């Protein structure tokens, strides 16, 4: 990255692995989207697919069980390569927000912050060393 946070979006709609693979194929056909990666978390078997759709990265995710992570079907993601900017964004969004947590490390992020801001928008903030 060039030092600026990078915006992506996530479709977090409680799909199965097979449905996410079908979504990927559909978006490749419809939008000439590119599949960038396909991974599973270290402690699970849910496929996470990162795609590029019209110049924006989009994650096809499995959704979360109630009470864990973000329950929003559409989530904005921002990727940081500066830890202080990551922490600042998390603190500001959390002030009047709900459902916040810090997690990690993961194969795709040193730290992951999940927060729903005071307007109900779901944010997944990623920091990578």
Task: Report low-confidence residues grouped into runs of 5 or more.
Answer: none
Number of strands: 8
User: Radius of gyration in whole Å, from Cα?
Assistant: 14 Å
The portion of residues assigned to helices is 10-25%
Distance between the termini: 11 Å
Structural class by sheet pairing and helices: alpha+beta
Gross morphology is globular
Largest sheet: 8 strands, mixed
What is the overall pLDDT average? 83
Number of helices: 2
Helix-strand pattern, N to C?
Answer: EHEEEEHEEE
Strand content: 35-45%
Give me the side-by-side strand order of the main sheet.
2-3-4-1-5-8-7-6
Q: What does this protein look like?
A:
This protein is an alpha+beta fold and 129 residues long. It has an 8-stranded mixed β-sheet with strand order 2-3-4-1-5-8-7-6. A hairpin with a 7-residue loop joins strand 6 and strand 7. The mean pLDDT is 83. It has 2 helices and 8 strands; from the N terminus they run E-H-E-E-E-E-H-E-E-E.
């Amino acid at each position: 990255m060039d030092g600026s946070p990078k915006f992506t979006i996530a479709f977090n709609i409680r799909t199965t692995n097979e449905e996410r693979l079908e979504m990927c194929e559909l978006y490749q056909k419809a939008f000439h989207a590119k599949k960038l990666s396909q991974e599973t978390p270290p402690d699970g078997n849910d496929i996470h697919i990162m795609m590029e759709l019209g110049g924006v990265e989009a994650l096809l995710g499995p959704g979360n069980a109630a009470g864990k992570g973000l329950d929003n079907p559409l989530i904005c993601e921002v990727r940081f390569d500066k830890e202080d900017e990551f922490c600042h964004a998390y603190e500001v969004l959390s002030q009047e927000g709900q459902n916040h947590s810090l997690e990690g490390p993961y194969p795709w992020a040193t730290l992951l912050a999940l927060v729903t801001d005071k307007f109900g928008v779901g944010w997944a903030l990623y920091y990578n060393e």
